[in-house]
Specification:
The chain is α+β, with helices and mostly antiparallel strands. The protein has 2 domains: about 80 residues, FAD/NAD(P)-binding domain; about 140 residues, no CATH class. Helices cover about 45% and strands about 10% of the residues. Helix 3 runs antiparallel to helix 4. The longest helix is centred in the middle third of the chain and has 23 residues.
Length: about 220
C-alpha cells in the first residue's frame, strides 16, 4: 500500500516510520529543505536557530520507533535531561528559571509573591487530572466515531475545557497581569503536563465543536 505523510516533524516522522514498519511504501512530504519540524536547526542571515522542541514529554515513544526496526536508540541519539528548561527575564532584569524542580519553582514563586505558591500547587494538582484523563486514559483511543467523541463531553465540563489556558492559569495565579502573562507563557505545570494540557484542551474543544455540528446536521436523527 502507498501512503503519503505531509510534514516531517516528530509526528510526521513517527507516522511514516510506523507505516513503513507495517509494510507501506511511504512518501514523506516536507516544504522546508530539512527535516524535523520544530525539532530542526536552521540557519538564516548568518544566525543558527534551534526550532525546538520545547519539551520532550514522552521519550519512550521515540525509543519505540527504533524498536520497530530492531534498532537500539542509544546507537543513534542521546537524550539529556536539562536542569533549566526556560529562563525568563522580566523588565526589571529579574529572572525566573522554569524547571522540573518543584522546590525551586515554589521558592522562585515565593520570591515574587508567597500567596501564589498555594495557587501553583492547586494548578499542578488540577493539571494532573487532565494528564490522567487525556494521556493515561485516552492517548490510545481513536476518535473516529461521533459517539466516541460525545462520551467525552462530561470531561469537557469537569476539566474546564471551556477556559483558555491563560484563563485557567489566571484562576490560580493572581499576583499581577504582568506576572500572569509570563506565567501563562511558561505554563507553570509539572513538566509532564506542560505541552499536554494545551493539546488536550484543544482536542476536547474540537470534539465539542464536531459534536455540535453533527447534532445540528439535517442527517442526524
Amino acid at each position: 500500500m502507498n501512503s503519503v505523510v505531509i510534514g516531517s516533524g516528530f509526528g510526521g516522522i513517527a507516522a511514516a516510520l510506523r507505516l513503513k514498519a507495517k509494510g507501506h511504501k511511504v512518501t514523506l512530504i516536507e516544504k522546508h529543505p530539512d527535516l524535523g519540524g520544530r525539532a530542526r536547526v536552521f540557519k538564516k542571515n548568518g544566525f543558527t536557530y534551534d526550532g525546538g522542541p520545547t519539551v520532550i514529554t514522552a521519550p519512550y515513544l521515540i525509543n519505540e520507533l527504533f524498536e520497530l526496526f530492531k534498532k537500539n536508540p542509544k546507537d543513534y541519539i542521546e537524550l539529556s535531561p536539562l536542569k533549566i528548561w526556560y529562563q525568563f527575564v522580566f523588565e526589571d532584569n529579574s529572572k525566573f528559571n522554569y524547571s522540573g524542580d518543584e522546590s525551586d519553582m515554589k521558592k522562585q514563586i515565593g520570591e515574587i509573591n508567597k500567596n501564589d505558591i498555594e495557587g501553583y500547587e492547586k494548578l499542578v494538582n488540577f493539571t494532573k487530572k487532565i494528564f490522567d484523563k487525556g494521556f493515561t486514559e485516552l492517548a490510545d483511543v481513536p476518535f473516529d466515531k461521533p459517539f466516541v467523541m460525545m462520551r467525552q463531553l462530561p470531561a469537557l465540563l469537569k476539566l474546564k475545557s471551556y477556559k483558555s489556558v491563560y484563563s485557567l492559569v489566571s484562576s490560580y495565579i493572581g499576583y499581577s497581569i504582568t506576572f500572569r502573562n509570563n506565567f501563562f507563557n511558561l505554563m507553570t505545570f509539572n513538566y509532564f503536563y506542560t505541552n499536554f494540557i494545551h493539546q488536550f484542551f484543544k482536542t476536547l474543544n474540537n470534539i465539542a465543536r464536531t459534536t455540535h455540528r453533527i447534532m445540528n446536521s439535517p442527517f442526524f436523527f
